[in-house]
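Minutes, project check-in
Item: structure for the 69-residue chain
Input as provided by the requester:
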Amino acid sequence: MPRVNLQALVALGLFLCSLGIARMVNNITAGKWPGAHVWVVYLRMLLGFVFTGAIVLGFYSFMGKVVLF
């Protein structure tokens, strides 16, 4: 399997991880899950990094550039 395809799969995995983190933030904010404001801030920062990584790896995968492996 080409390295660009593996990079695209990692980008998809990061995007799915960001969806899970966004759901966690939503559930904590709505009060369905226990958590404090500090956890929401931490998860939103993590969400920013994970989503940015997914966008960058996906963009470079579409361009055919290998930056991860």
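Outcome recorded: The chain has two helices and no strands.
No further action items on this chain.
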